[in-house]
Write a structure and sequence with these properties.
This protein has 9 helices and 11 strands. The chain has 251 residues and is of the alpha/beta class. It has a single domain (29-47, 81-250), classed as P-loop containing nucleotide triphosphate hydrolases (Rossmann fold, 3-Layer(aba) Sandwich), CATH 3.40.50.300. The strands form 2 sheets. Strands 7-8-9-3-10-11 form a 6-stranded mixed sheet, sandwiched between helices. The relative contact order is 0.17.
Amino acid sequence: MKILEIAHMKKAFGDLEVLRDFSLSVEEGEVVSIIGPSGSGKSTVLRCATMLERMDGGDLAYLGAYAARTGPDGRSVYAPKKELRAMHSHFGLVFQSFHLFPHFSVLRNIVDAPITVGGIDRHEAEARAAALLAKLGLEDKRDAYPYQLSGGQQQRVSIARALALQPKILFFDEPTSALDPELTGEVLRVIRDLASEHMTMIIVTHEMQFARDLSDRILFMENGVVQAEGTPDEIFAAGPSRVREFIGRLS
């Protein structure tokens, strides 16, 4: 089953054309990593896919239902707000800088969206949050506040928050870029566990060995387009020279 379909996504900020033509289709249970130099459009793909930014052109669909389609003038036409709100339950996004509410406890950070957005009963939301905290090794932190946590713990809370709405797909935007090497390992272990449970994921990352070990497919982006796409072996061992040069610098 196709979870996500993107066709010919385009996005510009003023005169800066960030995405020129991006397409991607993701099957249930698939892990796709997006790599490439800074400024290549990787994070913008995620922001458009999660509707934090509106595409200028292209199609976007979740589970076969279109959030946006290309109109007669070539620009994206979005579905009504009610339909878009329903689609937000299909995905979760984990940011590189955590984006936790500093004045909320860990528990409230996790249950806020399921209660206010998902309409879930508070008792059920708290039970779901407790199970996620236990799964992520944070059961003793439910009443703590973000400033009392390490960076790795904060990122694990943000993953729990994304999982609390039980999404069909998780997006990770460089989830370890704000962490030191020891804390990076904490977060990568959590993502590995999710992959072993067949969670559908798209991961923007600079962790090359992690991408090679975990991904079903890897996309290399540069200048707003996909320059190479394939299995980890195809990209790392036999990819174009530009891709191998990039990987070599980061490995």
